[in-house]
Design a protein that fits this description.
This protein is of the alpha+beta class. The chain has helices at about 5-15, 45-50, 85-90, 115-120, 160-170, 195-200, 205, 215-220, and strands at about 20, 30, 35, 50-60, 60-65, 75, 95-100, 110, 115, 130-145, 145-155, 175-185, 185-190.
Length: about 220
């Protein structure tokens, strides 16, 4: 499902027209998607500006057109016999403040046209690097060519590009194999309602899961 599919489902199940979401999930991604309803759509931009946390797996040795497993393989290289200090040194290069170039296959616009539409036409345009921040990361498992990791990052961060750039630094290339958003600001996937439950539950039960604007303000410490 796309993020827009989830919005359409919530709109239909609740009988409310004014429904939005805070931050599109990539096609391969799972996890937390914040949905705003009614007056809640007014704080959508505010919620989208908050930090995000992800867990993912990158695969070394192959770069793709989309920087994730959905794309076509552009190049393959042998994966060197890397140890944990080698891998940690590469991750360390992308901690704190740095600039990141958005991928061609993204919703970011160029001249009013989303980059992914230009990419489908076989076009590659110059993208302006954006300033991003990684607050912390962890390397959770190394089973070459796969590396499991988690990352807490700023708004506008592309985890696909993060995986790609780490692979470039390690000299063998990489792409993102899997991704799950676990947190967005103070919201945690552990407290979310699943899409299947939204499909199954009566409207009154779904409504019990909705947070009010005062509740959201208290969560955010506002």
């Amino acid at each position: 499902m796309t993020s827009h599919d989830v919005v359409a489902l919530v709109r239909r199940q609740l009988g409310i027209k004014k429904v939005g979401h805070c931050g599109t999930l990539d096609p391969i991604a799972t996890g937390l998607l914040l949905i705003t309803i009614g007056r809640g759509t007014k704080v959508q931009d505010l919620l989208m500006s908050e930090d995000k946390e992800y867990v993912g797996t990158l695969t070394l040795g192959a770069t793709t057109t989309t920087q994730d497993r959905e794309g076509q393989i552009i190049e393959t290289k042998p994966v060197p016999d890397l140890n944990e200090p080698d891998i940690r040194a590469a991750f360390e290069k992308f901690r704190g403040d740095f600039y990141q170039t958005p991928p061609m296959v993204s919703a970011k616009k160029h001249g009013g046209v989303p980059l992914y539409k230009l990419a489908r036409q076989g076009k590659v345009v110059e993208r302006e690097p954006r300033f991003v921040h990684v607050y912390r990361y962890s390397i959770d498992r190394i089973s070459l060519p796969d590396i499991d990791f988690s990352v807490l990052c700023s708004k506008g961060f592309y985890v696909r590009t993060y995986a790609h750039d780490i692979g470039e630094l390690l000299g063998c290339g990489a792409h993102l194999k899997s991704l799950r958003r676990t947190k967005s600001g103070r919201f945690d996937v552990k407290n979310s309602i699943t899409v299947d439950r939204i499909r199954e539950l009566p409207r009154e039960e779904i409504a019990k899961q909705i947070l009010s604007l005062p509740q959201v303000s208290r969560m955010r410490g506002a």
